[in-house]
Structures are given as C-alpha cells and as structure tokens.
Write a structure and sequence with these properties.
With 161 residues, the protein is an alpha+beta fold. It is built from 3 helices and 9 strands. Among the domains are: 50 residues, no CATH class; 59 residues, Archaeosine Trna-guanine Transglycosylase, Chain: A, domain 4 (Roll).
C-alpha cells in the first residue's frame, strides 16, 4: 500500500558520499547534516526516484543532536562500571539549549509547573517566537513550549515539584 506524503520544506546543511558499492543492488553510504523534521527514509526514497533506480534506507545512525555527539556517549558497559551511573547524565538544559530562553518570575513558574499558560510581559530582545524553553528565576529548566506574542504555553513540563 502506498502512503501519500505531502511535500514539506526541510534543511539539508551537508550531504557527503562516504562510500559507494556498485552492483545489481548498489549501496551508498551517506553522511547527512540536516535540520529537524527531515526523514532520512524519505530522503533515500527521493534520491532513488531522482536517479530512476528507487532507493531505501538500510541503516540509520544518529551521530549528533544539537551539541551532543556520539563522542559524548557512554556505552552500557561503561555505565555498569560506574559507582553512580547518574553522574554520566548531561544536564537536561543541554538538549534544548538551541531554543530561545524565557525567564519566569516565581508565580509564573508555579503556573507552568502545573501545565498552565502564562502571560510574560517582559521578553528578551530579540523577542523570541514559537518554540521556547522556560526557566525559573533560579535558572531551573521548567518546560518547553510555544510563545505566541506574550503568551507562553508549555507543551512539555520537565520540572517536578
């Protein structure tokens, strides 16, 4: 069954051909640096269609996400050898550091902890729009959400009580 896919804009910053193995079923190893929302399986299919050969993805390995790379990764064996495996965890902020930051006063932070939207009268310049991360007055990451005008709507609350 064929599933219809709507075209969407994606960002491909770099694509490098690492290896090519010709044959009846040719294989290409490609390293792609791309923006969010890029589906590698669709990219492989589209490249194959453009070449007139068809294409599919046989292997996918995410080697980086924002500032985190495989070089920063810890194996299961390394975790098992640690007295405190929790010490190998990165701060939660690292995964969303690319998002604009909105700082909240204590009353707003309490509302966001409850999953409620808040009005933020003072925003940093340049004014953030869309996806943002919200922090407490003490710098604790509380949530990620959407900023529409001055209204912050948390979509994922990360802070506990």
């Amino acid at each position: 069954m064929e599933v219809e896919r709507r075209p969407r804009k994606v960002t491909i910053l770099e694509a490098r051909l690492l290896d090519f193995r010709p044959g009846e079923v040719a294989e290409a190893e490609v390293d792609v640096l791309c923006g969010k929302g890029t589906y590698m399986r669709v990219l492989a299919s589209d490249v194959g269609d453009t070449l007139g050969t068809g294409g599919l993805l046989a292997w996918l390995e995410r080697t980086a996400y924002g500032p985190m790379t495989l070089a920063d990764a810890v194996t299961v064996e390394q975790l098992q050898a640690l007295d405190d495996p929790g010490g190998a965890l990165h701060p939660l902020d690292l995964a969303v550091a690319f998002l604009p930051r909105v700082d909240l006063v204590p009353a707003q932070a309490l509302q966001v902890r409850r999953g409620q939207s808040v009005w933020v009268p003072r925003l940093p310049e340049p004014r953030p729009r869309g996806a943002c991360r919200a922090h407490s007055a003490h710098g604790e990451l509380l949530a990620v959400g959407e900023l529409q005008g001055n209204l912050y709507r948390p979509t994922k609350v990360l802070a506990g009580w």
